[in-house]
Amino acid sequence: MSDQRLLFSKSGRACYISHLDLMRTFQRAFLRAGVSIKHTEGFNPHAFVSIALPLAVGYSSGCELLDFVLLDGGSKEEVPEQLNRVLPEGIFVQKCYDGEQPVKKLAWVDWTVALEYDKGVPEGAASALKELLGRDSLVIQKKSKKAKRGFTEVDIIPSVRSFQVTEGEKNVLLRAVLSAQNPGLNPELILTAFRQACPELAPDLVRCHRNEVLDGGGKVFR
């Protein structure tokens, strides 16, 4: 047996598949594709799969990672084609390879966040977002099951490695490298801070896309 990792994308309607349903989707896909992988033990065994950094519902990504164990006799070179034949629209396996780096070394995520405005970008929106993320500290309230009050206060600036803001006719694009874990920074927290600081500049629609996952040195993680 050998430990394997899938690199796959999630787009279109598939963005609205939850993390748990995505795990079930892949478990069924391995079975339908005839790919033999390790199963859990017990009365009701199921295919053992693990997806790094659960993606929020509605977000798209071109760099999702799934770990599994391919049983002897399987060919990792054939796995992408086998799975893509049975996976639903919007989920596409790009590559299957030996997963040598542990997921705990995954440190950063490269995001594109599009703030869209139906009637055009209001004056000052891009500069306001730049100013917000350029602060030395930006403390916001974050939901927490462990806190007695149901939320905790966190400074999100230390979790922002870099960012760039550009303005289009009807959108403001934020390209940002954010902390992946321990703690991770969801782009939604940046949007929450922006809406609180500049409610008159709140976008009509937001789209978040995960471009790439990186290690501690900023190199592509695989």
Describe the structure.
It is a single chain. The protein has 222 residues and is an alpha+beta fold. Helix content is 18%, strand content 36%. It is built from 4 helices and 10 strands. Strands 1, 2, 3, 4, 5, 8, 9 and 10 form an 8-stranded mixed sheet that branches. A hairpin with a 7-residue loop joins strand 6 (139-143) and strand 7. The chain is elongated, with a radius of gyration of 20 Å. The protein starts with a strand and ends in a 7-residue tail after the last strand.
Labels describing this entry:
10 strands, 8-stranded mixed sheet, 222 residues, elongated
Question: What is the secondary structure topology, with strand pairs?
Answer:
Blueprint (H helix, E strand, L loop, with lengths): L1 E9 L8 H15 L16 E2 L8 E11 L8 H6 L6 E8 L7 E11 L8 H9 L5 E5 L7 E5 L4 E8 L3 E9 L7 H11 L7 E11 L7
Parallel strand pairs: 3-10
Antiparallel strand pairs: 1-3, 1-4, 2-3, 5-9, 5-10, 6-7, 8-9
Count all strands and give the number.
10
For the largest beta-sheet, the strand count, sense and barrel status come to: 8 strands, mixed
Per DSSP, what share of the residues sits in E-state strands of 2 or more residues? 35-45%
* Topology order in helix (H) and strand (E) letters: EHEEHEEHEEEEHE
Secondary-structure class: alpha+beta
- Terminal residue distance: 20 Å
Q: Low-confidence parts, pLDDT < 50 over ≥5 residues?
A: none
Radius of gyration: 20 Å
The overall pLDDT average reads 93
How much helix is in the residues? 10-25%
Number of helices: 4
For this entry, what is the oligomeric state of its chains?
A: single chain
Dominant shape = elongated
